[in-house]
């Protein structure tokens, strides 16, 4: 995927200004935060919260793509961060920053997410490829007390 340098700059600026540690506990009107346990049905909960939040923000057209990306991010957190030390939950965060929606999943693992070359025959390993394909851009930020937030950015206006 070839990225526009301005898109990348917007993306990095938004995530650095936001500060995930603060947002995960703030409860601002332009954010939705949802704690999720380390279990498989957290993926469905995350999809439902994402769709509901986007409908409430008047952005139902983002629902399917955003729910797919959130599914991949939460699945990765459940699969790879379950045995990390520290917090015993995952946190889903959605934030409206016009003209963007930022989705993030925080987990207690310090492991850096690494995309794999997509293998369309295997049953796993395509998660970050899907995140990259459906979002404008994605990345991750370390959290102050350990762990990370893996995020994806969606543009809401053409």
TrEMBL record:
GO MF term list: ATP binding; protein serine/threonine kinase activity
Keywords of this entry: ATP-binding, Kinase, Nucleotide-binding, Serine/threonine-protein kinase, Transferase
Positions of the Histidine kinase/HSP90-like ATPase domain: 37-136
The protein, known as: ATP-binding protein
Native organism: Nonomuraea glycinis
């Amino acid at each position: 995927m070839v990225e526009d340098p301005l898109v990348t700059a917007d993306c990095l600026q938004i995530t650095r200004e936001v500060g995930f540690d603060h947002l995960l506990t703030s409860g601002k009107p332009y954010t939705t935060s949802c704690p999720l346990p380390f279990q498989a049905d957290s993926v469905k909960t995350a999809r439902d919260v994402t769709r509901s939040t986007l409908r409430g923000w008047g952005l139902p057209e983002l629902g399917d793509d955003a729910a797919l990306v959130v599914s991949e991010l939460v699945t990765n957190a459940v699969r790879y961060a379950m045995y990390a030390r520290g917090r015993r939950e995952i946190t889903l965060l959605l934030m409206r920053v016009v003209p963007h929606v930022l989705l993030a999943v925080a987990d207690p693992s310090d492991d850096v997410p690494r995309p794999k070359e997509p293998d369309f025959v295997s049953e796993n390993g395509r998660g970050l490829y899907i995140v990259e394909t459906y979002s404008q851009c994605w990345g991750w930020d370390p959290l102050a007390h350990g762990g990370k937030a893996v995020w994806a950015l969606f543009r809401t206006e053409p």
